[in-house]
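Model it.
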Amino acid sequence: MVTRVLEDDDVELQDGGSELTQTFERTVADGEYRLSRSWRNLLATGLVGGLDVGIGILALLIIQAETGSILLGGLGFGIGLICLFLAQSELFTENFLVPVAAVTARRGTAGQLLRLWGGTAVMNLAGGWLMTGLILAGHPALEKTARDLGSKYAGLPAGRLFVLSILGGIVITLMTWMERATESMPAKLVVAVSSGFLLIAGTLSHTIVASLLLFAALHAGAPFGYLDWLEVAGTVTAGNLVGGLGLVTLLRLVQVGSRRIEQEQPGGRRD
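Modeled.
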């Protein structure tokens, strides 16, 4: 029988507690590194993150154009998240969990967190805009598919878009947590592919992914403009924050418990 140990506001299972601790430790260490990087490193990592996700957009467009199946296209998009993971680049919304954990453990500041969010988001978008432009310039036959997919996101009612954005924030932030919960490479790849599939097949809105789909459509002569993209991006970002920060990060920190968080703080005592 698993013995439950109650201490303060922490509820810790003896079986499995060490795994949770190790996951949190890895998350804090990674978050501290991300927060302390130079501007050059931060911006370069964000730029290649946009390029890497663009690889997934390329796979999605090719498969969708050839098969007409959004389900197969969703599987293909997972290639972009695999690139993101193996190439050690970053998405803006990945940073809803990792650096936030480091700030909670006092291994970084709110100012560093805002710098990371802003720099990564801008460079993700810049890299994605460039990559989708190259894709459509090289493959003009994909223009109709790009317009159709982009228009699908641009045409969603604001309320539904917001709800889908909450779900998108949950999926990506949970993906980040699960990747740090295992050292198994096959397991990490399964997490990346399955998360990518859910984002595309479920039309879950994610700030960077949705923006790249709209950019692709705009490069292909979409029936909407950049102001429409900006409106969509604002709604999606708000929903991602609710889902990623409110429904995943906050609850995972509660799951970790105050005692573990205090142990990760500078000068914290490890039992």
